Amino acid sequence: MVDAVGSNPGTGSQARSALESGGVNGFSHAIFGLAPGEDSGSETLGRYRYQAEVAARDCLAMLTQDTIEFVVCEWHEDFVVAFEDGSVELVSVKHREEDQGTWSITELCKSGGLAHLFDRWCACECAPNVRLRLETNAALNPASGNAATLARMCGPQPELTTGLADMAQQIARQMLKVRWKQPYPNIPDTPQVRRINEIELPEGFADKVTRFLAVLEISCAPPQRQHITDVNIQRILAPAIQSLQLMHIDLEATYRAIVERIERANRDENDRSQLAAHIADPSRVRYSTQMQRRISRRTITRDIIRQEFVYTSVQLPTFPRGQAPLVAPGGAKLSRKLRRGELPSDEAAFAERLRSAWFTTWSARRSGLAGDETDLMNLSLDVLNTAFKCRSHARAEAADGNAFGTRMNDLMAERLTVDTLSSPPPFLLNDLHLRGLAYQLCDECRFFFSEPFDTDEEAS
User: Fold this and answer.
1) What's the pTM?
2) Residue 425: what pLDDT?
């Protein structure tokens, strides 16, 4: 079982069609003005790496959970998980050194991300399809009425409801105090007073904080910085690879490549604005090419994750070991086409065996997720492109009216290789598998080894 990451998405309606002017693009939190490259300290870089590794947990979950559609890296500690049902989860990552102790409510609001998440949620107009998650490696203060109690009061079905109204007022005042020194545009600016209990709550603000807590999860699941790499590899990546029945994957190299890809998305310095509101309400970007490009640069999809797989150099057998080879259904049209192309009978028999090898491999290693058909289509387009080039070359070499199928087949054997594919295959393949797929596509009448003809008429 792959570790569950985040909460299960709930069905929610889309956000309203537009924010008031000056919303997301005018967000002025100080962190958005700090470029990662401006602080090269090892501690800072270590925190950025940790934040990318926390995001990697949700990205790796896409390999086995088709409910997650994509992940968008916003800025530094933030990312957005988008689900197939239209709901989104805004995630903030807060690393805390072990010698700093547990989180208190005051620290959670001041530097632990609660005020930041609240402001992002408001920027999304508190839309019903938006949920929130605070991810931290540190524990919560277990004292009565402190941070651990707060966590139990969060979510749509809180474990603890007694004292919820008082807790909401406490959080509200803490956020208002934070607002005195940090310019969160969606938190009211109230007069400063000496004692926090003297802060006068604006009308309706405590109720809004109560609704905020109802969509919030505070998670202490991420491991410590020195352990997160090993935990993510062994508890998430390795089981996912096993579930997908992939072989010869270098787990450590693959994990490094995935985290580095997330880091590149995190450090897109051309875009420092919040994107969550646009992701929560896709209609806002439908006619904005610029915003679509911004989101695309920061988006991690299931296909992107799979493209980062690093394979070992072990030679892959054409038929998977440990199982009986399957015989591919069909084959009659391929046989007629090879005969019309004047291929020798032994080469035709070899083509049929390779078609069965492809069928056996594809049946065993396809993921079972919705992306399978897209993977197959992309791979098929590469194979067909090479087949058409081979046919054109072979036809040009043949005298007028002469068969060119044998020469075309020879060229395919030379040119149809894994190394020449435009993008990595969805799982480990060898060159014979690609030829088997080519013969399958020929059997499906995607191309011919001669000039086109009616294969049904040929049968009669």
Assistant:
1) 0.66
2) 84
